[in-house]
Amino acid sequence: MTQKLPILLEIAEEYEIDPYLTTSFLKSSPSQNYALIHYLIETNQPLVIHQKINPIFGKQSSQLKRNYQIDIKDLMIQYPYKKGRAKEGEKKNGI
User: Fold this and answer.
1) Residue 58 gets which letter from DSSP?
2) N-terminal to C-terminal alpha carbon distance within the chain
3) How far is the C-alpha of 93 from the C-alpha of 32, rounded, in Å?
4) Cβ contacts of 69 within 8 Å, gap of 6 or more
5) Could you give the CA distance from residue 91 to residue 70 in angstroms, rounded to a whole number?
6) DSSP letters for 24-41
7) Contact 26, 7 (CB under 8 A)
8) pTM of the model
9) What is the maximum alpha-carbon separation in the chain?
């Protein structure tokens, strides 16, 4: 937990969602959150809704698959997390 926390905070800052963090976001792995962020960006969905982080970040993998048809394992392969990966000019603003 102590090793992944700085990484999660870095990801949140990078995509400007750090003011909206929840314990659910911080309990998930950096790879999972990174993949979900990129999925939301690619499908033109907001990272922040009504001044709260998108509720998709609080869902377990079984709920993601059942309710949203999202296979988190596939997303993590499609969007692998690598430190400092954000591309210049990439949409970062969560709102």
Assistant:
1) G
2) 27
3) 19
4) none
5) 21
6) HHHHS-HHHHHHHHHHHH
7) no
8) 0.83
9) 34
